[in-house]
Amino acid sequence: MSADKLYQAPGDFELEVSVFGPGYGESVLVHLGRNRWLIVDSCVDPESGDPAPLQYFNRIGVKPNEAVKLVVATHWHDDHIAGLARIVEQCSQAEFSCSQALTCKEFFELAQFSRRSITTRPGMEEFSKVLSILAERKQGRLESRGPEWASICKVLYVERDQQPLCEVTSLSPSSGQITLFLNQIGSLLPAKYNQQRRLVSVQPNHAAVVLWVRVENASVLLGSDLEETPNPNTGWSVIVESRNRPAGKASVFKVPHHGSRNADQPRVWSEMIEDKPHAVLTPFNLGLTSLPTKRDAERICRRTENAYSTARLPKTIKRNPTVERTIKEVTRKFRTISSAMGHVRLRKAVDSDDSWNVDLIGDALPLDQLSKLL
Amino acid sequence: MLETAETSFAENLTLSEKGQFEALSETLPSEPSGNLTDVWVVLPAILERADELKGRLIDNNITQTSGDGNIHAQSVSLREIELRNEAIRRSSGTREDKFIMLQRWEGTVTNVSKDSFVARLSDLSQENLEEEAEIPIEEIPEADLRLVEPGAVFYWCIGYIDRVGGQRIRASMIRFRRLPTWTQPAIAKVKAEAQRLRQILVG
Q1: Distance, CA of A13 to CA of A27 (rounded, Å)
Q2: Fewest C-beta in 10 Å: which of A42, A139, A214, A239?
Q3: B56-88: per-residue pLDDT in tens?
Q4: B113 shares contact with chain A (CB less than 8 Å)
């Protein structure tokens, strides 16, 4: 496809789901029709340093300060919020939503500790900036409601008057998940005389916001990083079991937690998702195990032939031979985390039975091809 | 120990000398390929330079030993010291070891096990390049072992040391940052600002 056609904005009655991922980081855009956009999480293009959503909007001629209606931060881990403050700043008319678990005083304190620490780097500091922007906005604008605190089966955005009709609903966190999060976060707060340290993301992620997006008769399930747990009051089980969740099945699934086994709940596939959906995941190249593993990729490919990854394996950087020799001698393992940015874009006409058109942009590729490389 | 030596030397200087000492410290060459950002790089260099300064003050007969046994320099202008240092350097051909930096990362520890740790590395010569390494604990100097915990920050440099005697040694140096601790007033400020924001956004 030519660059001109590739970077045309969707039509008023054309749905779009765009998933960006550079191998470490994730962001999802959804076009809700009539130039109304939803942004979910943020990641940065390693080449340009710009937030992927804003870079894409710039290319397709969308003005974020007018078009974006809702920005959702599904959780606070730095691979989901890099560049988020710039997005919130530019999307000046959008409401902001994040997990209700983050209303606790411990989280606000953690955000401030990160901001004031001399070791700060993008991550929780980004969230701290977002909170400051929202507070200023709320003080300055009477009509600003402040953040929408997402919880199980809560409607975050709705358009009931003008077609295409749409609704964005959070499916998590449940009260059980909020309790687990509160237990987890207290241990991260520094005490008097503790040396300043950087905040390291804790796993598993209990507070992640899962979203159900419906536009007319099409539904999309965005799984964030939510992992399954043995506790039926947390994880995916509580969502599947919920009687108040929106009806219907999704035709697009953003696979949770980079396709990991820990986030897999077969009932999600059988009860919440159509047969042979379009499934997209973003790889995660950090930690002792990269995700998805080969088995994860094969498992997902067995469930649908329409599975895609936003990024390939990271490329090895070539350095001075002396440096490379020393790295080999000093370390047990050494690898690159960042990959080039990839973008999986799905489009289809509203209320159409046609399948989704798929564009694989940048380093995005079918998941079965990635599986062969793993 | 290094801090103590530096402090006691500085305490024995008069005010004028302290200013000169500090000014000289600021003119110290930084790491050959980088900025002076780390105490661990600065302190040894300051101490060497301090000894050198002390030595030159004595050598140039501009000191007197007081009754308390401490060495006090007469008031000497900084410019005079610089000129005398330069003259001594040229006449003696004094050289110093040089470090040639080939690669430098800033690392954050993400996981610690019994004999190794995992860290996320930012390449300081290339923007947006993130890497990850598992490093054996034995690569860490003993003085830094207590600092190895999740969230700790360190610098890792690879390069060559060219010794004054002509040897070239390949070096890998990992040094953890000695970061400030959280004081009660700082914690109170954090909590106050957190409370203010929470009051606005949550109610």
Answers
A1: 23
A2: A139
A3: 444 444 444 444 434 344 444 545 555 555 555
A4: no
